[in-house]
From TrEMBL:
<feature type="signal peptide">
    <location>
        <begin position="1"/>
        <end position="18"/>
    </location>
</feature>
<comment type="similarity">
    <text>Belongs to the peptidase S1 family.</text>
</comment>
<keyword id="KW-0732">Signal</keyword>
<keyword id="KW-0720">Serine protease</keyword>
<keyword id="KW-0222">Digestion</keyword>
<protein>
    <recommendedName>
        <fullName>trypsin</fullName>
        <ecNumber>3.4.21.4</ecNumber>
    </recommendedName>
</protein>
<dbReference type="InterPro" id="IPR050430">
    <property type="entry name" value="Peptidase_S1"/>
</dbReference>
<dbReference type="InterPro" id="IPR043504">
    <property type="entry name" value="Peptidase_S1_PA_chymotrypsin"/>
</dbReference>
<dbReference type="GO" id="GO:0006508">
    <property type="term" value="P:proteolysis"/>
</dbReference>
<feature type="domain" description="Peptidase S1">
    <location>
        <begin position="41"/>
        <end position="272"/>
    </location>
</feature>
<dbReference type="Pfam" id="PF00089">
    <property type="entry name" value="Trypsin"/>
</dbReference>
<dbReference type="InterPro" id="IPR001254">
    <property type="entry name" value="Trypsin_dom"/>
</dbReference>
<keyword id="KW-1015">Disulfide bond</keyword>
<dbReference type="InterPro" id="IPR001314">
    <property type="entry name" value="Peptidase_S1A"/>
</dbReference>
<keyword id="KW-0865">Zymogen</keyword>
<keyword id="KW-0645">Protease</keyword>
<keyword id="KW-0378">Hydrolase</keyword>
Amino acid sequence: MLPRQVFLVSLLLAASNSFVPENKLTPTVYESINRGVSGRLIGSDETTIANYPYVVSLQYNSTFFGYEVAHFCTGTIVNQNWVVTAAECALLLEPENLIVRAGSSYYNESGIVYTVENVTTHEDFDAVDLNYDIGLIKIRGSFQFSDVIQPVKLPTYNLTIENGTMLDIASWGVTEFLDANLSPVIRKISVPTITIEECSRVYEQVGKTQIDVFCAHAANIGPCVGDAGAGAVRDGVLLGLVAWSYGCGGTTYPTVYSNVPRLLPWIIEVAGITSEAPEESGASEASGAFCSLLLIFLSLAISMR
Ligand SMILES: *[C@@H]1O[C@H](CO)[C@@H](O)[C@H](O)[C@H]1NC(C)=O
Ligand SMILES: *[C@@H]1O[C@H](CO)[C@@H](O)[C@H](O)[C@H]1NC(C)=O
Ligand SMILES: *[C@@H]1O[C@H](CO)[C@@H](O)[C@H](O)[C@H]1NC(C)=O
Ligand SMILES: *[C@@H]1O[C@H](CO)[C@@H](O)[C@H](O)[C@H]1NC(C)=O
Ligand SMILES: *[C@@H]1O[C@H](CO)[C@@H](O)[C@H](O)[C@H]1NC(C)=O
């Protein structure tokens, strides 16, 4: 009997002010930022792990309210031992209950499954403001690098992420908002970044309490349940981590990403990256401040027996 996939969409309410963004993007704004973007709603195109060999599925090897939980978040390999993801993905787990599947296009089979030695979240991560939303997971042993298991390239420090930068996100999340099924095969979307000003029109905390993030948005394309923690990559370089949004799939609201160029010193320090340390960037400071929100979509894929 095949397990039936259901989801628990857990809404982490990170307290404070209002839970609803002040303003939606105006149609003009998102029509314009959507121009030139191909693809469909949410999950977009099927791909293979060989195109995104740094992507891993984070899975719970335990039961959750009696259900066996499979993929719940996505991570990115940064070196032989460490995977980077969002803090809220790392926080959920005791290392002994977490497994990492690498090198497979399917979250539920093939590839290599690694157990976990250590889970660390940024010491300044703040569940209210959602600042420093980043975590690192250390596997037991080392990744066996191959055509389908490779570390991502890291950006330069404080690299400026220009408005309209196209980001690729590969993951196993749902292909329709409120759909109960993860995609068994890895899928990929491309979304453009938007300016802080545009993002702040939607999420009022922009520029106030949440820093070291940026936003991206395209109508009807975006990360959703099962995609939290996934890397947002341009030309093989990791720029962002899927952090949170109000609603998801890019229907109306932008998605907020942890800004990897700004959080790089923490990654380097914790993951002990010594060789090929990125050059300091001469670029101007990253585009400032962003939103803090209050509603995180987290997801757990549950295999119901
Ligand atoms: C999952 O947990 C079970 C029971 O604790 C254990 O026997 C098994 O080896 C674990 N699987 C992995 C891949 O760690
Ligand atoms: C993985 O998922 C696919 C699609 O749902 C299914 O056909 C396959 O049997 C599953 N594999 C395992 C090992 O459960
Ligand atoms: C996990 O890693 C962090 C950062 O390297 C370290 O401070 C901590 O002691 C480690 N915990 C365990 C249980 O190894
Ligand atoms: C990055 O920017 C922060 C804040 O502006 C600054 O404190 C830090 O020194 C910068 N780091 C590098 C390597 O330029
Ligand atoms: C941001 O980029 C989009 C295209 O992706 C463009 O339509 C928009 O006008 C730009 N906004 C600013 C403030 O430059």
